[in-house]
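Changelog-adjacent note: as of this version, every example in the card shows the full chain rather than a window. The one below runs 224 residues end to end.
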Amino acid sequence: MKRSTLLGIVMTLAWCACVAALVYWKRGTLETASLNDIGGFLGGATAPVAFIWLILGYVQQGEELRQNTEALCAQERALAVQARETSELVKNAARQAVAAEVLATATDTEARRQRAAEIAKAQPILLARGGSGSGGDIRVNVVNEGAQITGLVAVFPVGVRAHFEPSEVLPSGGTSVLHIAWNGSYPLEFSVQYCDALRTSQFMRYTMPRPFVLEQHATPQSAA
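Full-length structure tokens:
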């Protein structure tokens, strides 16, 4: 029970006791009192009680308003703290997203580098090591100082007949003879198609500036 309510009950009981004592003291005059006198007495007796509870109601209402205000202030402070925490969470999430993106980029770059290294390691290194023949029919000894390749195909311009022997497999350190039959002048440009050590179809461009000499143009390109 609230203190103001308890105080109101005590004051009401005390006032009722006073009224009861007054009635007992004036009991001899009640028989001769008129209805107007009795009504005025009752009105005077109950008015203080109503006034007491009116005042206590205002006090109690003010106390409740104060408590509600304090609760709202506490709620506002809690919301402010929650907003700051949410802001920090958003900032942390943004930092984590940036870090994840940087890590993904670094991982992708490293993966690309490793893939490029694997592809480069799987390619042949074809070098001319002399040969035989002259004029329109020559045979070039092609040595592979790189990775093993399979399915060699010599692609020359129209009018040039050429092929590798053997052409099925050219292991690392192995030799294949490139037969060329033509009646033209140097330099002679052509390409070699093959499957590298990763079983990927590739082709590489070469130039033969003079008999028995090979010059590689650039890195291999996928034939897919």
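Structural remarks: The beta strands are 126-134, 137-144, 149-155, 161-165, 169-170, 175-181, 188-195, 201-208, 215-216, 221-222.
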